[in-house]
C-alpha cells in the first residue's frame, strides 16, 4: 500500500521590492514636517540666491573702469550703457539655468527650455536622460524680470541724486524680495548649492 506524503504548504514570500520598502520604513522613519523657522531659513537662502548680488558686484567693480573714474563723456557713457545691458542680460539668463545629477554621479548644468533642458557640459558618450521636468515655467520668467528690475534699480542710482531717489532701490529690492519668498523657485542653477537629490 502506497503511503501518501503530505504536501508542505508553500510559503508566499513578498517581492524583494516590497521587502526593501518595508525595511527602509523601519530604518529611515519619515521626516517630521518642517517647522516655521526651517521654512524661513529656506526662504532666506532662496532669496540670497535669487538677488543679483554677483551681477551687482561685477557692475560695482567695472564701473570705475568704464566711466574713467566718474568723468562721463560720450564714449564712457556708451561703454557704461553697454556694460549695464550686458550684465542685465546675464542676470536674466542666469534665472533659467538649472542642474541635475546624472547616473554617473556628476552634476551637470544647463539652460531650461520649453521642452526640457539644454545641457552645457554633458558628455557625448552618456545617454541623455529625460529632462522634461526641467521645463521653463511662468515663475522662471517672473523671477528673471524681478531680478533685472532689482539690478537696474540699484545700478542706475547715481551718487549725487536726491534722498527720495535713494529709497527707490530699497523699495524695489524689498518688494521683489517678498515676491521671491512668496513664489520660491526649484531651480539650482549656476551658483546654487547642490542638494543631495541633485536638484
Automatic annotation (TrEMBL):
GO terms for cellular component: cytoplasm; membrane. The keyword Mitochondrion does not apply. InterPro entries: DMP (IPR007770). One of its GO terms (biological process) is endomembrane system organization. Pfam families: DUF679 (PF05078). The chain crosses the membrane at residues 78-96, 134-152, 164-183. Its main location: membrane. It is found in: Membrane. Keywords: Membrane, Transmembrane, Transmembrane helix. It is a multi-pass membrane protein. Belongs to the plant DMP1 protein family. PANTHER family: PROTEIN DMP3, PROTEIN DMP5. This is DUF679 domain-containing protein. It comes from Asparagus officinalis.
Amino acid at each position: 500500500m502506497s503511503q501518501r506524503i503530505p504536501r508542505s504548504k508553500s510559503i508566499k514570500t513578498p517581492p524583494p521590492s516590497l521587502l526593501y520598502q518595508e525595511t527602509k520604513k523601519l530604518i529611515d522613519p519619515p521626516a517630521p514636517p518642517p517647522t516655521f523657522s526651517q521654512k524661513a531659513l529656506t526662504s532666506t537662502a532662496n532669496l540670497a540666491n535669487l538677488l543679483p548680488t554677483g551681477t551687482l558686484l561685477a557692475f560695482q567693480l567695472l564701473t570705475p573702469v568704464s566711466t574713467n573714474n566718474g568723468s562721463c563723456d560720450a564714449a564712457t557713457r556708451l561703454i557704461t550703457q553697454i556694460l549695464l545691458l550686458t550684465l542685465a542680460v546675464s542676470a536674466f539668463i542666469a534665472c533659467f539655468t538649472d542642474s541635475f545629477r546624472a547616473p554617473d554621479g556628476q552634476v551637470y548644468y544647463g539652460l531650461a527650455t520649453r521642452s526640457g533642458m539644454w545641457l552645457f557640459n554633458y558628455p557625448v558618450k552618456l545617454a541623455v536622460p529625460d529632462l522634461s521636468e526641467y521645463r521653463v515655467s511662468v515663475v522662471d520668467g517672473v523671477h528673471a524680470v524681478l531680478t533685472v528690475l532689482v539690478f537696474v534699480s540699484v545700478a542706475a542710482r547715481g551718487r549725487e541724486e536726491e534722498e527720495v531717489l535713494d529709497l527707490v532701490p530699497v523699495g524695489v529690492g524689498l518688494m521683489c524680495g517678498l515676491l521671491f519668498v512668496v513664489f520660491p523657485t526649484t531651480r539650482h542653477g549656476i551658483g546654487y548649492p547642490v542638494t543631495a537629490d541633485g536638484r
